[in-house]
Design goal:
Shape of chain B: globular
Structural class of chain A: mainly alpha
Strand content of chain A: under 5%
Helix content of chain A: 25-40%
Strand content of chain B: under 5%
Distance between the termini of chain B: 42 Å
Oligomer: heterodimer
Helix content of chain B: 55-70%
Order of helices and strands of chain B: HHEHHHHEEEHHHHHHH
Largest sheet of chain B: 4 strands, mixed
Number of helices of chain B: 13
Largest interface: A-B, 14 and 22 residues
Order of helices and strands of chain A: H
Strand order of the largest sheet of chain B: 1-4-3-2
Radius of gyration of chain B: 19 Å
Number of strands of chain B: 4
Number of strands of chain A: 0
Distance between the termini of chain A: 15 Å
């Protein structure tokens, strides 16, 4: 899951500038 | 009733496509053929016009407020790259390719977000195992982005920056290696792909078929993916029969493109890996790194 953290976030609508 | 369900699926995917992808094929072809009421795109054909056009490439003008909000999220993260780059005393003409490459990365990261939203709109997609959703996107997204470049391209160049700029193929070929090798295979693919004359509603279904590929490495539960793809394939076949009644074997020709795409993506990933080694000052966007790492 850690390897694809941003993809997971995009899929779960939890992307923010801080996350990225 | 079955055909009615397939038509409803086609309409649904077309609506999602229009919602998430700001530059449609219809709009891109209007710009390329000079039929838009707006101004003609700014043409980049040499280093001088590239430097002049850079303010456009930075994608400051965004089509919708929703895109603007999401885009700033992606560019904030990427801003550090240009900042770090400014401190380097590079030859300006050497640096310009890297700056352009960074801009392409920012736009690609935003495009990955658009494709993700589109994937989530495919009925049944978000019910799949979350790890499989990630795998489908990881392997499918570059193929989707290459398909979506086709409407923006003709044999002479490509629209970029949401259709505000036209960059000539000759200029791209004149860049130093390996930058000059990056888009040429996409032009070759696009010119052939465009002869199929798909419209945006056909494209929506084809993109969904590509995303729902059950043979991606590492999938945990292939069966539900194949079932979803089969339904979308039926919808695509029906759509093409109705929308292109005179185009023989269009469905088969389109499916063959999926084989070509895999090779283009493999070559593309190798070029990026080459760039990472040769261009010490080049950084990859974290989202694109995630996708490319251990891909092929």
């Amino acid at each position: 899951k850690e390897k694809h953290k941003i993809l997971h976030q995009l899929l779960q609508n939890s992307t923010s500038p801080v996350d990225l | 009733p079955e055909a009615a369900d397939l038509r409803a699926l086609s309409r649904h995917l077309y609506e999602a496509y229009l919602k998430y992808f700001p530059l449609t094929k219809a709009k891109a072809r209007a710009i390329l053929s000079g039929k838009t009421a707006d101004n003609a795109p700014f043409v980049i054909h040499d280093m001088k016009s590239l430097l002049e056009g850079e303010q456009f490439i930075n994608c400051k003008q965004i089509p919708t407020p929703e895109h603007q909000q999401q885009m700033s999220a992606l560019t904030v993260a990427h801003g550090g790259l240009s900042g770090a780059h400014q401190g380097l005393e590079c030859n300006i003409l050497d640096a310009v390719e890297l700056r352009f490459f960074h801009s392409c990365q920012s736009r690609s990261a935003e495009a990955v977000r658009e494709v993700t939203e589109f994937a989530k709109s495919i009925p049944g997609f978000i019910e799949l195992d979350l790890n499989d959703q990630v795998t489908l996107l990881k392997y499918g997204v570059i193929e989707v982005l290459i398909i979506m470049m086709a409407p923006l391209m003709n044999k002479d160049g490509t629209l970029i920056a949401y259709g505000q700029i036209f960059m000539t193929r000759e200029f791209l070929k004149s860049l130093r290696k390996p930058f000059c090798q990056m888009l040429e295979p996409k032009f070759e693919f696009s010119v052939k792909f465009n002869t199929l004359e798909l419209d945006d509603s056909d494209m929506a279904l084809f993109l969904a078929v590509v995303i729902l590929s059950g043979d991606r490495p590492g999938l945990l539960n292939v069966k539900p993916i194949e079932q979803l793809q089969e339904t979308v394939l039926h919808a695509l076949e029906l759509q093409l029969k109705l929308n292109h009644p005179d185009s023989l074997q269009l469905f088969a020709k389109l499916l063959q493109k999926m084989t070509d795409l895999r090779q283009i993506v493999t070559d593309h990933v190798h070029l990026i890996q080459l760039l990472k080694k040769s261009e010490m000052e080049m950084c990859l966007h974290p989202l694109l790194q995630e996708i490319i790492k251990d891909l092929y």
